[in-house]
Amino acid sequence: MNRDNLLFATIGVLLGFIAGYLMHEVMVARQPLRRLPGEGGVVTADQAGAGGQPGAPDGAGGGGGEPAADAAAQAGQAGAGPEGQGAPQGTPQGTASGLGGAPGGGAPGAPGAPMAEVQKLRDYVASHPKDADAVLKLANMNFDIRNWGRARDLYSQYLGLRDSDADARTDLGVCFRELRQYDSALDQFRHVESIAPTHWKALFDEVVVLGIDLKQFDAADKAMARLKALVPAEPEVAQLASELQRRRAAG
Description:
single chain, mainly alpha, Serine Threonine Protein Phosphatase 5, Tetratricopeptide repeat
């Protein structure tokens, strides 16, 4: 073999190697990598609730006996109302008033908790219904994902154990409000005022229901006067007062 043939043969081997390598890269880019036996993907709480697919059930949504999505399955998404429906149209998001971050009385929960953790807590609450701390934790989880029906039921269960918890009762009122059960919401807020007169968030939410939801402006003004006397320096209160004036003027 002369030098020219040897050179061509070497070049041919190199070109074949490069072509094979490039073809491998193309195939890898177009096909998913194979998993080893027993290896699987980790499904997060957000993924489990994506596309309308519920995770493990966390009781009855709306108290009607129909299974609602679990707290972990809907983390970060709109919570379920009665029969798994979303929040009513026109209902402010996230807080009782929806006015620039005004308080709704919600206690912190764990909306990003793993499915296994929530399932474990759910099972524990089912078998230990008088463990007030566990019931409250599960209620807060459902509140945080706007699963109002389930949160309502859990707060009611908790308050049967600890009736004097003003924060939890305010949260219960918010649940009723989001479910458009306004009379029940007002009952809860006014009960808080009777047991904790300085708990201004309940009074704030009462003004929201009276003025924003029911358009009972005279009653809302009276409650607002008490609210301003209680917390005159709160910016959220001033914001709510301005919103009431605007809505009254708009009719």
